[in-house]
Amino acid sequence: MVVLLDLKLPRVDGLQVLSRLKSDPEMKLVPVVMFTSSREEVDLVRSYGLGANAYVIKPVSFQELESALDGLRVFWTEVNHPPPGSAPALKGGE
After folding, report:
1. What is the pLDDT of residues 16-56, one digit of tens each?
2. Per the confidence metrics, is the pTM higher than 0.90?
């Protein structure tokens, strides 16, 4: 499992969501990729400071977006080796 998280969400700031995820014992080891249009250094620094595992600036074109998402998928599901116990336990037999 990997979470793609934008900084600019409709009701809650993405950094607040990141902070909550990383403070939850069941979720803190789940990788979070900030996937945003922000090129602001302060956003990048704050994201990593709160525990983001990667910071990716969204491409402009749809084709570049597809390529970026596929690259993220391959890295996080096929290349990366997460620490044992990093996936949260499924609840209710999901």
Report:
1. 999 999 999 989 999 999 999 999 999 999 999 999 999 99
2. no
What's the pLDDT at 3?
93
| 78, HSE (Cβ side, Cα atoms, 13 Å) | 6
Residue 3, both tokens: 């979470």
Q: How far is CA 6 from the centre of its chain?
A: 8
DSSP, collapsed to helix, strand or coil, labels residue 24 as coil
Shortest CA distance to 65 belongs to which of 13, 22, 4, 2?
A: 4
Backbone phi, psi, residue 17, to 5°: -65, -45
- Neighbouring C-beta atoms of residue 43, cutoff 10 Å: 20
Closest CA to 32 of 11, 18, 15, 43: 18
